């Protein structure tokens, strides 16, 4: 494990931080390409990723601190220690603000974010794995169980490498969503992301050491269930594919030389 990737003039460059920056850049690139295919400015994608990342980290840290109020220490306020669902909530709110300000089509943007979001999550969790940030699973004697004696949070006992499980699941989900992208329009694709990512986290959580809070389920599992329910709703809503679309007109959302597209609603909505 390499919590410190390298040093420059005595300044340690953390593997954890590098992975999160890489995740944001990859998400911006992928979302920019998706926006271009939809006729939306790439700059809007970059703005969305930037603010969702910034406020996502703020929300993830606040949520983590609230989770650890009983034994809060300076370590918890440092560079590591974030809760994914806190980041998802605050990142989603900030994304909605950007979408509104740029007058973007919500349904199409939601679908466009599904694959970049899960790829970015996989990259970020890979950073957790290499940094040895302590988000390990339970002790295990399986052949691929690992100890993290040199991790940021050391473990000398072989455990489930759950960050690696999360990464593999995220990349598998991205592949499924890529296959389904023409079959599930707009919000439906995002619904598929919510279902698959929620199910993956729910399953991996059985191998982690988080404390159960309700009916033997941990807090991340409760959030996972909510994610699955929300995803199913998006998948089964009638007319989900055509509720929002882009047409040439006034606005600042697109790149048409005849004028930027404006968001309009189909009569069927």
Q: Give the count of helical stretches.
A: 7
Instruction: Name the structural class.
Output: mainly alpha
Counting copies of identical and different chains, the oligomeric state is single chain
> Helical residue percent?
55-70%
Strand order of the largest sheet: 1-2
Poorly predicted parts:
240-269
Calculate the terminal CA-CA distance, rounded to whole Å: 52 Å
- Rg estimate, integer Å: 20 Å
How many distinct beta strands? 8
Give the DSSP E fraction (strand runs of 2 or more residues). Answer: 5-15%
Order of helices and strands: EEHHHHEEHHEEHEE
Q: What is the makeup of the main sheet?
A: 2 strands, antiparallel
- So what's the overall shape? globular
Mean pLDDT: 81
């Amino acid at each position: 494990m390499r919590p410190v990737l390298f040093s420059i003039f005595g300044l340690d460059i953390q593997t954890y931080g590098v992975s999160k920056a890489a995740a944001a850049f990859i998400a911006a690139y992928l979302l920019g390409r998706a926006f271009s295919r939809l006729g939306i400015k790439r700059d809007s994608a970059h703005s969305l990723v930037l603010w969702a990342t910034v406020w996502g980290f703020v929300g993830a840290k606040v949520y983590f601190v609230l989770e650890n109020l009983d034994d809060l220490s300076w370590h918890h306020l440092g560079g590591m220690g974030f809760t994914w669902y806190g980041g998802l909530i605050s990142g989603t709110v900030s994304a909605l603000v950007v979408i509104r300000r740029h007058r973007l089509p919500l349904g199409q943007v939601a679908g466009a974010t599904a694959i970049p979001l899960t790829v970015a999550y996989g990259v970020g969790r890979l950073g957790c794995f290499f940094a040895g940030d302590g988000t390990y699973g339970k002790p295990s004697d399986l052949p691929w169980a690992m100890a993290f004696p040199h991790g940021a949070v050391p473990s000398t006992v072989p455990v489930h490498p759950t960050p690696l499980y999360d990464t593999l699941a995220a990349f598998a989900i991205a592949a499924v969503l890529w296959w389904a992208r023409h079959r599930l329009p707009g919000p439906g694709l995002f619904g598929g992301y919510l279902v698959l990512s929620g199910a993956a986290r729910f399953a991996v959580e059985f191998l982690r050491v988080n404390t159960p809070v309700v009916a033997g389920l941990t807090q991340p599992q409760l959030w996972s269930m909510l994610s699955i329910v929300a995803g199913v709703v998006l998948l089964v809503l009638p007319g989900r594919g055509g509720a929002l679309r882009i047409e040439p007109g006034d606005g600042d959302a697109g790149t048409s030389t005849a004028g930027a597209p404006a968001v309009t609603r189909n009569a069927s909505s």
